[in-house]
Amino acid sequence: MFDTDQTSLPQYRNQAPIYSRFISRRNNIIRLTLVGLLLGTTIWITLIKPLVESESSIILSDSANAEKQNTEPTQPMWQIDIKEVIDGRFSLFKKEQFTEVALNKNGMIPVTAVLLGWKRMESLQIVVNYISKYPFIKEILIWNNNNKMRIYAKDFILNNSEVTLNVFNSEKNLHDLSKYTTCSMAKYDYCYFQDYNWLNLYMDSLYTNFLNNPSLIHSNTMPINYLEHKRWMFANSDKNLHTGFTRLGCGSFASRAKVQRFLGQLGSISLMKDRLKFADVYFSLWTNQYPYQLSNPLITLDKKDGWKAGVNQWNVDQWNLFYNNILDATQKLYTALAVKSGSELFAPEEEQPYYNDRDTRAPCLNDNCLFLTNIDPFPHPSRVYYANNITHVHDQEAKFNELDFPENSFWENHAYHHAVDLNERTCWNSFKIPKIGDYFGLQFVEPIFSEKITIVSTKDIRNFDASFNILVSLDGNEWLKCTGIHSDSIGYTFTRITLKFNCPDIAKTKQLFNYIRVEASRNFTEPLEICSLMLDGLSV
Ligand SMILES: *[C@@H]1O[C@H](CO)[C@@H](O)[C@H](O)[C@H]1NC(C)=O
Ligand SMILES: *[C@@H]1O[C@H](CO)[C@@H](O)[C@H](O)[C@H]1NC(C)=O
Ligand SMILES: *[C@@H]1O[C@H](CO)[C@@H](O)[C@H](O)[C@H]1NC(C)=O
Fold it and tell me: Which pTM value belongs to this model?
C-alpha cells in the first residue's frame, strides 16, 4: 500500500524549516576544486570493481539521488527555524567524559561518524558542525561520492576541537556501500551514520539508548516508517531467523564489527552491482537481528527535496527493485542459516535484549530523555512465519496486515513520541488495554531528582493515584518502589494529576535516579492516553 498511498505521509513529507539565512553566511566557506585523491586498498578494489556508474541508480538514502523534485510542503507540521534549533542544542555529555583516561573508567563509548557527500555542501556543513557538538563523536569521516565536487576538511567548521575530521574524495560513486567501507576504516569501534539531508535532533537520547545495548543497530525512524518497517521483519525460529530492515540515514549507530562482518558477507556472497546499491537493505537484514528502532518525527534539511529523501517518491519500478532486494537479502540469509556453514557468515544467535524486552520507544523532543513503555501495539515479528516460499514481500505484508495493530492514521496521531513532544494536546495512546504490571516511564540522559510526577491525559485520570505504582532505577535493571503515592490537589483537574511519592535513596548520597516507571497496579478497562509528563525541573 505504501507504493501507491502517497497521502499517508503528508505531515512528514516536508518539515523543511527556513534556514537560508544560515546557509548564505556559510557560502563563502565553500572552496571546491577538482583535484581529488583516490584511496585504494584491496578491499576497495574488489568492491569498487563491480560498481559501474549508472544513471538510473536508486538507493535508499538519497545521497546519490540527484534528480530534481519539487515537492512543495502540503502541511508543514514543524515550522521551526533550523538555525535557532541548532544553536539551542547542546549535548548534556561533557568533553571531559571522552578523554582516554575518563573512557577507561566511565563506560562511555567514543564513536566515529560516517557521512557521505553527494551534493548540497551546505547541508553537509550544517550536519558536520552540528554533530561535532556531541562529544561522543570523536572522529568524523566523510566519503564524497561526487567526482565533480571535491571537498576538504577545511570546508567545515567543527564545534569541538577534540574531534578529528577526514575527508575522502572518491573517483567513483560507491553509493551506500561507502558507508560500510568507510566505517570499516573507523578509529573507534562504533559508527554513527547519517545522511547529509537530515538533522537528527535526538543525538543524546539515541546515544543513551545505544549505550545500553551497543551491539545492536540503533536507528531513528519516523513513526510512519516505524510502522512500515514492522512488515519487513522476518522470523523463523527453526532456522534462527530473526531479522528486520531499518533505514539508517536519519541517524543510527552500528558496531564496526557488524559492518566488517557485512563486508565479509559481501566477499562470500557476491551481489550484482545493482543490488550493492541497496547495501542498507542487505546490511540491516544480514545482521540477523531486529534493529532497535525509535519512533519520532525527523527534520529534513532539504526544503526543496523534502521527502524525496524517503522512499515515498519512488515509482512502481523503484519500489519493485527495493522489494526485490529485501526478498533477495532475506532468502540468501535464510538459505545460509539453513546450512550449517552459514553460521560462520551470519549470526544465528538472537542478541539480547530480545524484542519483547525492549521498552525504549521514542526520544523526548527536548533530547533530555527517552519514553519507555512495555506496551507494544504491534505484534511480535514471529507472528508472521517466514518459510522462504514467498515470491514477493507483499505476501509477507499481507500476512502481517491480518494481525491486530494500529492503522496509519491512528499511529500518526498517537505514536509514542506524542507523550514527550512538549505538546499537551497530542497524546500517546497505548492501543492495547493495560494490565497489572504494564508501565510507561522515562529514562533520563542525566540523572534527576524528583518527588512528584504530573501526568496529563485526555481522559478522566482522577483515580490514577490508586492505579499505579512508581518505581525508580539507576541502571534500568534494579528497580526500587517508591512509597506514599498521593495526589497533589494543586493544579488538579479531570485530565491532569500530580502524584507525589517518596523514593528510596538508590544513589546512597543523593536521591538521583536515571529511570522512572509508572506501573499499573490494576487491570484497566480502556487504553491509556498520555499527553505530557512533568517532573521537578523537567517537562516533556
Ligand atoms: C558550538 O555550539 C554552541 C552551543 O550550541 C554554540 O553556542 C557555539 O556558537 C558553537 N560554536 C561553533 C564554532 O559552531
Ligand atoms: C509456505 O510454507 C508454509 C509453511 O510450510 C505453508 O503453510 C504455506 O502453504 C506455503 N506457501 C506456499 C505458497 O507454498
Ligand atoms: C488482570 O488481567 C489478567 C490478564 O487478562 C488476568 O489474568 C488477571 O486475573 C487480572 N487480574 C485482576 C486482579 O483482575
Answer: 0.85
